[in-house]
Amino acid sequence: MADPRLRAALAAKQFVVAPGIFDMISARIADRMGFTALYATGYGTVASHLGIPDAGVATFTDMVGRMGRFAQGCSTPLIADADTGYGGLLNVRHTVRGYEAAGVTAVQLEDQEVPKKCGHTPGRRVIPAEEMALKIEVAVEARRSDDFLIIARTDARTSLGLDEAIRRGQLYRKAGADIVFIESPESEDEMRRIGDEIDAPLLANNVDGGGRTPILSRETLASLGYSIAIYPALGFLTMAAALERSYAHLLRQGDSNNLPEGVLYEFGKMNELMGFPEVWDFDRRWARPDAQRADG
């Protein structure tokens, strides 16, 4: 079931900051921190699950299981990347129903051609706006609950310009999208225009480490008319940097002593994060008397 708290937060004009999660360790850490929503990044999920680029190779089957595991393993509402809906109109209906049944709260659909490419990368091409509007209409009809939110993303800015991206955002809102996502605006002024000209909750994609869009404070984004800020790459880029430092240290030194401060997560904290205390409590409660004597 979709979580009604995200819709309620948007209705209350609460600005939503959503960190990117990409595996169950990142999901569990983010889930404990008090965010209003989490964002299941397609790039990071495909990279961690399949070890390949987010270039339209991953299928609905690859992704819905992962997204469902994130949703079931977290108590925070989950926003999930669903690429193009994995095909045509019938695929979109199947995707929406599958993601909703898996426990996702909001699904992001984009207007790229198949196979899609990751946002903020070159070579993205979009389908006709009217074709995407039909996909949004199908998605809205397919959902079982109004608490399951439809996010319409357009990648038209990079290839067709800002005017066309805004036109598409307006069209997708009229088609029933709950949230509009104009991918890759290239300045604060462009973001201001988007906020002025699209009457809908807006999503800002903050890509750390080299995205096209400036990363602005939540106060600035709210003043420009945005409602949600996602940080899809923050988690996996942080993880990759820490792993590279740790593994290089091991290769260079031959052991893991004297690692740089702050690189390691404490083993005891990891046990707690993964739920081992509950397992140990279960074992104690159900241990056989002979096993208890052996342990003693």
Automatic annotation (TrEMBL):
Keywords: Lyase. Signal peptide: none annotated. It holds the Pfam family PEP_mutase. One of its GO terms (molecular function) is lyase activity. CDD domains: ICL_PEPM. This is Isocitrate lyase/PEP mutase family protein. It comes from Teichococcus vastitatis. The lineage of its organism: Bacteria, Pseudomonadati, Pseudomonadota, Alphaproteobacteria, Acetobacterales.
